[in-house]
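Design job #97: recover the sequence.
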């Protein structure tokens, strides 16, 4: 027997077969899983010149407000609209409490789009990957549902699809037996748009969320990061997250 392990042989064969099938596989008629991975127009490729990020001000995030969560669910068809309810949660509100003072605050928690994402490190097939612009995604063609990425994520930001899904949205293809998480609304970003959660927060004049290019010193997010003290959740892990928080 060669030195190559059985699992390595399996991975190679699996990836080879997946690559052949990916070109024509659809979850439902007209909805192809690979669309999300190729949202950026071919004439305008993704580069590392840009790094997308988000700044969340917990001081402006009101307890009981779920506008960002609802916007995410509506944008990606996670709940409602006559679709089956799922346990998927791409963004959720969490409550923090200072045990000494009793002070509480709430904030949205989502995929942190790390520069060094643990989910990518542990994925056995390469389904979890990071684009050059910092957005972390899942290629559902080659996701085998092992859920190693869910265990590796220190933010509990990933969900597993248990049910067969119907009436999916073309820009947010999903598949039973695969893992999914916040995509920073990549379909919007690649068309010069803003993530749905940020748009909803601004529409209600809460303005607790700012999205933009961390590499652009003139962007609003870069200006605010220079002006205010901000934090990374679990900064000790040295993941260099793309999501930063103010007021925690």
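Job complete. Output follows.
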């Amino acid at each position: 027997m060669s030195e190559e392990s059985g699992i390595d042989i399996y991975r190679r064969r699996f990836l080879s077969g997946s690559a052949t099938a990916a070109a024509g596989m659809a979850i439902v008629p007209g909805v192809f899983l690979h669309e999300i991975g190729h949202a950026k127009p071919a004439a305008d490729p993704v580069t590392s010149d840009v790094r997308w990020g988000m700044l969340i001000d917990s001081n402006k995030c009101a307890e009981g407000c779920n506008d960002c969560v609802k916007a995410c669910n509506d944008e990606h068809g996670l709940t409602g609209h006559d679709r089956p309810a799922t346990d998927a949660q791409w963004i959720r509100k969490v409550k923090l409490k200072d045990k000494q003072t009793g002070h509480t605050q709430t904030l949205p928690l989502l995929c942190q789009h790390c520069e060094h994402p643990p989910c990518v490190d542990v994925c056995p097939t390469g389904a979890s990957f990071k684009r050059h612009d910092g957005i972390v995604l899942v290629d559902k063609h080659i996701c085998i549902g092992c859920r190693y990425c869910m265990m590796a994520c220190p933010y509990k930001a990933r969900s597993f699809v248990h049910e067969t899904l119907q009436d999916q949205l073309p820009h947010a293809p999903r598949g039973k037996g695969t893992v999914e998480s916040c995509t920073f609304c990549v379909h919007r970003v690649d068309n010069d748009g803003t993530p749905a959660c940020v748009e909803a927060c601004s529409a209600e004049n809460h303005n607790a969320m700012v999205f933009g290019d961390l590499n652009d010193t003139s962007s609003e997010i870069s200006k605010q990061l220079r002006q205010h003290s901000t934090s990374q959740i679990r900064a000790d892990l040295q993941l260099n997250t793309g999501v930063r928080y103010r007021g925690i």
